[in-house]
Structures are given as C-alpha cells and as structure tokens.
Write a structure and sequence with these properties.
- By secondary structure, the protein is mainly α.
- It has one domain.
- It has five helices and no strands.
C-alpha cells in the first residue's frame, strides 16, 4: 500500500499537533470529571446518614475503596488543567500532553474501581453478598472491555482498514500513533 502524500498546507506543526491533542484531552476529561465529581460528592455525604452505622466492616472497606478511588480519579482528571496553568508559556506542551494522557488512564482506572466498589456496596447492603459479587464482577468486566480492552485491540491489533492520513503522517514523523 502506498503512502498518500499530504499537501504541505494541510500538515500541522508539532506545536499545532500538541495544542490539538491537549484540547482533545481536556474535552474528554470534561466529560469524565463531571461524573467523578458527582460520585465523589455523593460518597462524601454517605457517612453522615443514619443508616451508615448499620454497615458491616466489609461494607465500610468497600466504601473506603470507593471514596479514595473517586478522590484519585478527581485528582487525575483535574491535574491537566491545573498543570497547564502552572506551565503556561513554558514550552512544555508536548510533555504536558503525554503526561495528561497518563493521568486520564489512571483516572479512568480509579473511576472504574470507585464505581464498582460503590455499586457492590449498595447491592450488598440491599440484597446479599453473592449478588453483590456477581454485579461487581459483571461491571468490572464490562468496564475492562469497553474502556480498556477494546481500545487496546484497536491500538495494538491488526486492522484490515487502510490507515488514515493522520496515522500515516504520524508514522512518517515518528509520532505516537495514539495522538
């Protein structure tokens, strides 16, 4: 398969690519951070309810995992915007883009853990342990596939589709294909 030549006028510079990638990362973080903050805020109120004292020790540990992982997810999703403010005009945008991508992945892992633990806590409190474990296991498998497995297959697996112009451009310039 031949490489499609991209006209010089439509090629983006490294700076333009870093700006575009950072904007895309911030947009995806905006979607996630709202959900994380709602979950985190809800979890912060739970211990102050009357029924919290009825939780067994196992459920209290589930709550702890849900709360702390929601805090970690919040920190990771907010970090890129804060670091952008701290590093403004320092010429470190490409480093910030790569770091922000890692924070997004860590934030997604923490969010998945928090959602799974919180759901398991509620199901265990309302019904029984076996259903809670089955529900949490199902959620964990779904998140693992939809958020991580399927993208990994697309990223590292073979594709019968022709590469996009952007992918070809990245290969010629040695850029990360995930950009």
């Amino acid at each position: 398969m031949g490489v499609t030549e991209v006209p010089q006028s439509s090629r983006e510079t490294d700076k333009e690519r870093a700006d575009r990638n950072f904007t895309e990362l911030l947009q995806s973080a905006r979607v996630a951070v709202t959900g994380v903050q709602v979950l985190f805020a809800f979890l912060l109120t739970v211990p102050f309810t009357q029924r919290f004292v009825n939780l067994r020790e196992f459920d209290r540990w589930l709550f702890y995992v849900a709360l702390v992982s929601a805090a970690i997810a919040s920190i990771c999703y907010i970090a890129p915007a804060n670091q952008h403010r701290m590093l403004f005009r320092q010429g470190l945008k490409e480093k910030l883009v790569r770091r922000s991508n890692y924070y997004g992945i860590i934030g997604a892992l923490a969010l998945a853990l928090s959602m799974t633990a919180a759901t398991m806590l509620v199901v265990d409190f309302l019904f029984q342990s076996a259903l809670a474990w089955a529900t949490a296991g199902g959620l964990a498998l779904l998140v693992a596939w939809v958020w991580f497995g399927q993208p990994a297959v697309n990223r590292f697996g073979r594709s019968d589709e022709a590469p996009t112009t952007e992918q070809e451009e990245g290969r010629r310039e040695g850029a990360d294909p995930a950009d």
